[in-house]
Design a protein that fits this description.
Oligomer: single chain
Number of domains: 1
Structural class: alpha+beta
Number of strands: 12
Order of helices and strands: EEHEHHEEHEEEHEHEEEHHHHHH
Number of helices: 12
Shape: globular
Distance between the termini: 37 Å
């Protein structure tokens, strides 16, 4: 059986390792290009650009193993952002210093992430909204009804603060069938491709217990269905657009397994293209993320006594979702173009893996298929501009890991400097007194 990569390369079954490696590299380059393009756009627009690491929890304190992991994660985060900063600055002087690092607010069940309308130039710490009567009523309603929605790993529930007329709906993370127009790659296999399936617990997302999973697939769902996930914040944004410009979208940490109070990067791109800026952004996972749309979910009403149980609905307005989706696709297309230019920039080549640079050139060639000026254009920017990004997000990993692999030469340099050189703003090693290279023991 022949398999294809995101860029359309064909591999036979006799080379599975080569195929998996190629898919990983392509997905790394695509996601890294969007992140780099996003960061450079913030510099061009003179808008704050900050990525945050998760605030440690009280349960992590006092455990040597957990504390050691926190330190390791922090060093990795700082190393990758330093590498990003260097690559951005080489492309456009001054843009590297524009990229900032931070820490997300302390997380706990019931805490909120804010989508601030028009908050592009606000400092991230200023984007949270004050407690008002309508916001308090929204939170009370969510607390009373939270047991009816998914509360497992990565459970964030979308909420809408409408001071004019209360919106008592909860908008949880939803499992949906992917629109193959906007995510055309068939995937690496035909067994629920895109389903969140952590190693060692591959069936947890199908668990009927809402504290673990989203329940079984609807009856007669084909095994080769392509799976995606609509996140609560993005769904809440569509309802804010529907209800009025005075509304504010939120995402609430739901359950005990969700403590990261920051928007994932895929959500962040949708929030920016829709005009609602997140109070914090992380570079963790956005597994099989897709933009909101109307239609049925790949979930059933687990509380129904009727047989067969009908699938749940996303309850999103088709026209509003369509308009916001088109804006998002156009935005991602332009971020991909800019990001691939940054990776292919000869002056920054020392910071990127050679194979990733080569794939960035291939990505640039693929993006030419969207050119509206050419009669040979085969893809539509308005409905498929983000297709490569969605394809890459179905290859599950954290965005930080993808950046680390793409920027591996730069990351290794900064790791070396961190281990062996005492660095301050006044004491950065010059080329003349740079530390010796590590011995090659290969």
């Amino acid at each position: 059986m022949t398999k294809v990569t995101i860029f359309g390369k064909q591999y036979n079954d006799d080379s599975p390792n080569l195929y998996d490696k190629e898919v990983q590299i392509e997905s790394d380059v695509i996601v890294s290009a969007v992140i780099l393009g996003f960061s450079m756009t913030r510099f061009y627009q003179q808008q704050h650009c900050q990525f945050d690491i998760e605030h440690p929890n009280a349960s992590d304190v006092g455990s040597p193993e957990k504390e050691d992991k926190i330190i390791q994660d922090w060093h990795k985060f700082e190393t990758v952002l330093s590498a990003m900063s260097a690559a951005l600055d080489r492309y456009c002087e001054g843009s590297g210093d524009w990229l900032k690092d931070g820490q997300s607010p302390k997380g706990a069940e019931g805490e909120l992430i804010t989508g601030r309308s028009g908050g592009h130039r606000q400092n991230p710490t200023e984007r949270e909204s004050p407690l008002t009567y309508s916001k308090a009523a929204m939170l009370n309603n969510a607390e009373r009804n939270k047991d009816s929605v998914y509360s497992g790993r990565g459970a964030y529930t979308g909420l809408v603060d409408n001071p004019e007329k209360a919106d008592n709906n909860l908008y949880p993370t939803m499992r949906v069938e992917v629109n193959k127009t906007e995510r055309p790659w068939p995937g690496k296999h035909d067994e629920y491709w895109g389903l969140i399936a952590p190693t060692g617990n591959e069936q947890i997302n199908l668990d009927p217990n809402p504290a673990k999973g989203m329940g079984p697939m609807p009856q007669n769902t084909p095994r080769d269905v392509k799976v995606g996930y609509m996140h609560g914040m993005c769904t809440a944004i569509t309802h804010c657009e529907q209800q009025g410009p005075w509304c504010t979208p939120y995402e609430m940490a739901t359950g005990l397994q969700t403590t990261k109070m920051a928007s994932c990067f895929p959500c962040t791109t949708y929030m920016y293209s829709s005009g609602y800026v997140p109070s914090s952004i992380h570079l963790g996972r956005g597994e099989s993320w897709v933009p909101p749309r109307s239609g049925q979910r790949l979930e059933v009403n687990r509380y129904s006594n009727s047989q067969p149980v009908e699938p749940l609905n996303t309850n999103c307005d088709e026209n509003i979702c369509g308009n916001l989706s088109e804006s998002w696709h156009r935005s991602i297309y332009h971020l991909l173009v800019l990001g691939s230019e940054i990776i292919c920039n000869a002056r920054a080549s020392e910071f990127f893996e050679t194979v990733h640079i080569n794939r960035a050139y291939e990505l640039s060639e693929q993006l030419e298929k969207y050119s509206s000026k050419e009669q040979s254009a085969t893809l539509d920017i308005n409905t498929q501009g983000g297709a490569f990004f969605l394809d890459a997000l179905s290859v599950h990993d954290s965005e930080l890991n993808r950046l680390q692999r793409t920027l591996e030469p730069a990351c290794k340099t900064y790791e070396f400097m961190e281990r062996y050189v005492f660095r301050t703003k006044e004491n950065v090693p010059s080329k003349e007194n740079a530390p010796p290279k590590e011995a090659n023991h290969d």
